Amino acid sequence: MSKRKTGSSLEAVSFAQARDELFSHILRCGVIDALPEHQKDWFDDTMGYIAERYEDLEEEELAQLRTLGERYCQPVRRGEPVTYGAA
């Protein structure tokens, strides 16, 4: 007996697959170390590819994916050092 997936669960699966594929591409292509203008060009091209590959994703979901990818490429922000106890 097989379970049928609803439209929303299929979209969630597509989003997760597209996200994982995007992150994989980022790592393979060395986008993290690229200059910001090169990252923008790369994301423009790659998001076009992702949109074609995952046709069931809405524009909002594609925008969310791009935001996640761009955040993934940003350097780690280090906060102020935490001191414990009295000096």
Write a compact overview of the structure shown:
The protein is an all-alpha fold. The chain has helices spanning 7-29, 36-53, 59-73. It is built from 3 helices and no strands.
Walk me through the topology.
Elements: H1 7-29, H2 36-53, H3 59-73
Helix pairs in contact: 1-3, 2-3
Essential attributes:
87 residues; mainly alpha; disordered N terminus
Number of domains: 1
Q: List the total number of helices.
A: 3
Shape: extended
Beta-strand proportion: under 5%
Percentage of helical residues? 55-70%
Poorly predicted runs of 5 or more residues: 1-6
Characterize the largest beta sheet: strand count, sense, and whether it forms a barrel.
Answer: none
Order of helices and strands: HHH
N- and C-termini, Cα separation: 66 Å
Question: Would you count the extended β strands for me?
Answer: 0
| Radius of gyration based on Cα positions | 18 Å
Mean pLDDT: 86
Q: Decide which structural class fits the backbone.
A: mainly alpha
Outline the structure in words:
This protein has 87 residues and is an all-alpha fold. It has one domain. It contains three helices and no strands. Helix 1 (7-29) packs parallel to helix 3 (59-73). It is extended, with a radius of gyration of 18 Å. It starts with 6 loop residues before the first helix and ends in a 14-residue tail after the last helix. 7% of the residues are buried. The model is unreliable at 1-6 (pLDDT under 50).
